[in-house]
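WARN  no MSA supplied for this record, continuing single-sequence
INFO  ligand: adenosine-5'-diphosphate
INFO  echoing inputs
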Amino acid sequence: MSWIIIVWSMNAAACLTLASIYFLVWCKQREGWAYFVLSCNAVAGAALTAFELALMRAQTGEQYGVILRWAAFPVWAVVVSLVVFVRLYLRAGRPWLAWSVCGVRTLALILNFIFVPNLSYLQIISLKQVSWWGGETVSVPVGETNPWILVAQLSLLLLIIFFVDATIAAWRRGDWQRALVVGGALIFFSAVAVGEAVLVVWGIIQAPFLACFSYLGLIAAMGYQMSNDMLQRAQLARRLQASEADLRETQERMELAASAADLGMWLWDIVRNEIWITDKGRVLFGFAPSEKIDFDRFQNMLHPEDRESVLQAVENSLRTGAEYRSEYRAVLPDGQIRWIVGRGDVEFNGDGQPVRMRGASADITKRKEAELEAARQREQLAHLSRVTTLGELSGSIAHELSLPLSAILTNAQAAQRILSNDRGDLVELREILNDIVSEDKRAGEVIRRLRLLLKKGEMQQHSLGMNDVVRDVLKLIRSDLINQKVTVETELVQNLPTVSGDPVQLQQVLLNLVVNACEAMASCNTSKRRLVIRTRIENDGGAVVVSVTDQGISIPEEKMEKIFEPFFSTKEKGMGIGLSVCRTIIAAHRGKLWAANNLDRGATFYFSLPIKVSLVTTALRRRSVGSDTAEVPRHREAATTGTEKDSSKELIPDS
Ligand code: ADP
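INFO  complex generated
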């Protein structure tokens, strides 16, 4: 048997084998169109091999011409499928070049059937039997080359340019291996095949067409790279499987932990407005098992009183990326109310837009009920303590009331005298009535403050200026201070940021501290009975601190903490609940109450209260532009003397 037939048949068989392998791969992986195109390409390659063999075995020039004409079909198929393959696999190559290659090659195919015998030759005069490969002879045409063959050769030149362009683009993109193996093989083997065909057609060498060998090399290189790809993909899939298994395990562990901690986990897809939530979470919020949940659904189950604050917390997280935290009440479908705490984190995309929020929620109803109960008890105790303190002050409060009342009486008697006189002086009468009105207001003010302090009620949250609280308290116990001959100085920072709190409770704290301070100074010489109340900003503008400094008996160091314990008292008639109530009140305001002895004598009691968040920023901004609030000159006031300009003046009772 002829060696040529064996070798060319093996070549065709190799092409067909590769074609079927790629076809099978494509069948398994339908989106891998590059495999399908490569499979078609390999079939065309096998056909090309068969045509080359037939050309070598042609008996007459006419036969050669016909075979060469029909060989144009597999050549067209190989060229076009290679272009498509490069676009699909290398994802590169300019489209206009691709279209040019296909267009010119199609034109060559059409011209091939217009010319007789074909596009390569105008006429084939004879066939020459050339001895080739181990003494075997092959047919080589002798004839006139068709100048239109340049069209076909132009398409091949464009094809090589297209390969070069695609290879460079893939290389630049960083796809080095594909560029080197596939792009390199495409350029090299097509250049060899085209070069050999050109030499044969133009009669420069006398040899058969040998494109099939280049083609086999080409397809083998492409096959190598694609198998490599498949191998890598398989490894990747294995790794993915392993990490998916890890992920599943982590997820299971997390779910276990979440369920052990009674947490409902959720994920809010902000873009699609869909909320995924674990079964535990559904039970927590009272959502039906298969119910679709979006943000509106979540909002609707919120208690109307808490809706605003929750929406604000969500809005704040989405805007600033801060952790979402809120405690709110959920109204379940059966009307039951459940306290829930929620925490979450926001994820942003590359443009800084929030895309997802994930977090967990838990039932805190029991804790909240306990807190509310504790608050109620604290209220009662605080009220009791207030009543006790005011009871102690009752004498001076009565005095405070008797002053305006006796003034009213005196004025009224004077008015009566004027009226009994026939020539009543209207101007004088008006002045007297004005005095009566202002004295009445003064008495009314005392009663209003008293009523406020004696009132029983839940803790209120208001924006408060601590300087005002200090002034209000001093007005209330003005008479008591006068009676005890205590001088009070106030050093209040101007533009003090506001705090959030209950005015009555904070007045109560200050009242307690002032009363204690006066009692601590009771045994001192009257000239030493000096009380200083200061306000200042601390914690980098994060808190307001109020301090009450006395010149009294000081606190023994070992009792410094004990004095805050309930029922600890060193006084004969003391109940020992004042400071402990003050501490709970300040703690409920997220603040601190503490005491320290002064260097010379007496003690100072301090309490700090956090500044409202928005105000912290304002204060910090003010600091950063150079007008540090803490350094604003302090405004000195003498609150109890009635001579507010001179704070150091000894107190003179004004009755
Ligand atoms: P009470 O005044 O009924 O004793 P408090 O809780 O107000 O109860 O005070 C507890 C104790 O703390 C007081 O008995 C006193 O020993 C001590 N104390 C409070 N304020 C001062 C002060 N300014 N100087 C010295 N000791 C004080």
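The two ends are 142 Å apart (CA to CA).
INFO  checksum written, moving to next record
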